[in-house]
Amino acid sequence: MDAAEPELVPEVFDQAIVAVSLFSGPDHRLVYRNEAFGKLFGRRALDLTAAEAFADERAEAFLTLMDQVYADGLARQVTAPRATVGTGPGAPGPRHFVYSCTRVRSRHGLGVLALGIDTTREVAAAERAEQLSRQRQQTLERYEALISAVSQMVWLLRPDGSMTELVEGWEDLTGAPWRSAMDPGWLELIHPRDAPELVRVWSRALSGTPTMFESTFRVLTASGEYRHVKVRAVPVLGTGDNGEQVAEWVGATADIEDQWRARLREQLLARVSAVPGHHLQGAFAAMAEAVVPELTDACAVFRLPQSDGLPSSGATIATRVASAARTGLPGLPALRSQSYQVGPVAREVIESGRPRLLTFAAGHPPEGVLPDVSLRWLAAARATSLVLVPILVDSAVVAFAAAAGCGDSPPPSAADIELLREVLQQAQRPLRNALEHQHTRRTALILQRAQLTPTPEVPGADLAARYQPASTTAEIGGDWYDAFFLPDGTLALAIGDIAGHDLTAATAMGQLRSMLRALAFNSNRPATPADILAQLDRVAEGLQVAPFVTLVHVHLTLRADGWHAVWASAGHPPPLLIPADGPARFLTGRRVDLPLCVDQDVARSVHRRILGPGDTLLLYTDGLVESHEAGLAEGMNRLAAAATANRHLPVEELCDELRRVGDRRDDVALLLFRPRL
After folding, report:
1. Architecture (CATH level 2) of domain 266-438
2. Looking at the domain that runs over 452-675, which CATH code has it been given?
3. From CA 306, how far away is CA 649, in angstroms rounded?
4. What is the pTM (predicted TM-score) of this model?
């Protein structure tokens, strides 16, 4: 311990309710003990060594502990109850106690301060009951506060409001002199967002029966930055005319910035590591939400159109794809793909790969840093600082985040900015996955659309088709439709769904569509749709094209009495007939045949229906009737009702209307056939 450190005045413990003793030098000579010490251990004579004052063999652990504390300066405590040793003059008999030892410097030189608290009553009560009473719990909490206080900044608050710093350190931490009272000037050093809660917690501790006070808040330090401190204080009760009264408060203040930051870092890294990697915009949104409000008041993410950052020349357009803000700030502008031309500041951040801090007058962000809609929000939120942080995936800047401090929030420190950068960079893996999913989705969609050829012109009938990809990144690839003429003029329709929603499913869809066309077109004999599905089942299973396929195949032939529809289904949702008049109804048949690639030996059914002028036949995939919120029956009823209500529409418009019935989280294919009047 440095000789320049303040000396402890042991007499401040004269009236303390805990036993206090001070030992000086390496032989631990007793130089001070208060009245509570005598009541617990008897009146041990001053100037005795600890070994002489506590001669009982059971005191060996206490003497060893004192040697360790004196040697390395680390405070130690023993919370398991110990029995009193020796029977010194005035000793009250066997007692139980717990104690702590702390190295201190006093006018007697370097020594060890020992604190003990009588727990005889508590030990006796513990033998009678399993649960601590409220009074015993408070006693233990007071003891813990006292034994931890002497190793930190320690202060004393008297009933008249005056304060004394027993173990100094406040001025070193804050650069401001110690104040003798908790006045408004003292609160000026507290972070403005923490001060109201601090006052509330302190007022609650004072009200009614005083209880232990504990609070964590930020203090303005001598360096101009805020640091987290933890304050813990315990009321020391004295006896007054009206019974027990608070004689004073003994408190300790500890700088816990490093511990707080380490915990926050672990918490935020864990949070951002859980960012979903299947949806790019969802991943960016989760990143913005992960850092608010712990690291910043608001955060917006701007995506760059190129995966490798800025182009070599020309302007770069960044698009706002996510935003989050703490409560109490104005509502965020809606995400409507707001884009802007990247200015010099953002360009520097992207090119250098390093964050950039901007500070400005409240509500006056610099022009050109962010799009106008964001600048208007920063003005309304009275922003005072802005940090632009690049977001990299495999060393390429794919986006950047703009983190804002608003109102009374101080600008972020260098440590804050570094932690923000580290947390955002932790999302590299889920972002990479999201980008790969997006690339896969784009490839699958291109393949899907390339194979979903336009429907042919049908004499005497109208035909329309739609394919609607899912709104989520991964859900695409399995649904398809087809329409073509057979050599004899029969119109063949097909619609199906392949298990899976990825590039593999899209590839399998193309193969299956081609095989169905070939089997239907090149049949050497008249073949029903059931015959063709049976052949397709054998080929798909033999070539292992797909593990599970549902499909409806329809043949339509125009005759004198109308269009004759013949179809077979492989486990697919039933066609919907929308009559020229009357309610729409599903053509379910007597049984539901198995999907393809399940059992080739089971015979397939053939269904028939004559369609008159104005009747409409709808083929669709399950995304139109299934949803995450409702059952299949409800979805089918909803589709039938929508079809009935809109059957007067032309088939192209009816297609557009009916595809809105489906759950946008799954892809949907539709085919509509209607004989003309």
Report:
1. 2-Layer Sandwich (3.30)
2. 3.60.40.10
3. 43
4. 0.50
